[in-house]
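so my prof wants the structure for this chain in the tokens format not the other one, which i didnt know existed until like an hour ago. anyway here's the sequence
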Amino acid sequence: MNTTRTFAIVTAVLALAIGTPLLVVAAQRTEPELIGERWYRGDGLGYNVTLTLADDGTYDARWSGCLGIYGRSKGMWVDQGFEIALAPEFEEGSMIGHLRSLRRLKIQNTEVLVPPEDIERVLKADATMKSRGWIPFEAFRRDSELSF
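here's what i got, hopefully its the right format
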């Protein structure tokens, strides 16, 4: 029996024994390309959200604009493969209820994170912006890949 299958069986047995919280822990993957990265989404004016995913499973998000910081959110994050689940422990201002999950997508060969409610808008915008090499502002991009 290979190691992956053994791990899956042990995880399933433990999940049945102690309940579903174990499944959340087992689902967390520490993707090196996500951890420690600062992600940005915004229009460069009044809507600018930065998100940092730390290697200890915590995140920090801030919404800022020309008048200062409009809101903050901190909590835990879990990588579920195609989706990042965010569980806030603290929220204030405009960040209250703002981010709960992000889908991992590839747009123009760039990995982006997009809230599920914005996926359709991002894909439509990408179809028109692709020729210019622009990525829609609704998508979180790595801070290191930005060019203003």
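also thought this was worth mentioning. Residues 1-30 have pLDDT under 50 and may be disordered.
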